[in-house]
Amino acid sequence: MNPLFVPNNVIKSLLDQPEQQLNLQLCGLSATLKVAIPHYDEQLKQFYGNNILPDFTKAIQRSGIPNHSKHFGLIIRFHQSAVLNIHDEHLAFYGNAKTLIKHFETVVIYNACVDEKSRDVGHRNRFPHLKFHRDRNESQPTPYSLFTRDPHDSEQSKPRNSSTLFVTNLVAYLQCMKEQDYAQIDTKGLSAHYDIFKQEDMTQVLAKVALEHRWDEPEGIGEMSMLDNRNTLHSSYLRQELKHGYRIGVRYLK
Fold first, then answer.
1. Do residues 78 and 31 lie in contact, with contact meaning Cβ atoms separated by under 8 Å?
2. So what's the pLDDT on residue 192?
3. Which residues have C-beta within 8 Å of that of residue 125, sequence separation ≥ 6?
4. Which pTM value belongs to this model?
């Protein structure tokens, strides 16, 4: 059994000093951990400006969407190939993955795959380009999504052409305000999906407003990412026009 477990003192250290990069033993292997987008709240203020985001309290009141993240995304990179027991047969997380998602919203893990028994759980999917959505809602018993690239699969073992992007729910509202696309936010609260960022220079969006999981590690390297659909939206991003990439593994956990 090799569940994902990050010690609480490591989590606290990353939250207190989000610019740092930590090297440590994790799941019996050496790994590097870092925050993907430190000071996410400040990045959003800078990107959207005072007219759209005078302060988070007002934006939350106007949108009806709570904001959860001071820092966004946790990156875990194993230095050797890791096989992780992420969940049990009832789709419940092992370890403290849910704690990591609570603090960082999205967790991206490189050079790792799920255990052989869990390899074929779930289905495969290819998300639409820049159509941010959630897979589950608050009423469903499995609100978490786990996306995987299987290094043992003949197709997924190769690098992928397209990325998965992640943003917090509030970003969808802020971006619609920036684009003056008020039809998508004509009612308070979270919508099922948003078509956003299509007029943006994505070099200004990635690693500042959106976390990108590129799925482009070398051939034979496993990757995975996980999120809570109640707090985070995701979409595909075609780095090259019309190159959609293969379908990634998708499963829903509790």
1. yes
2. 86
3. 247, 248, 250
4. 0.96
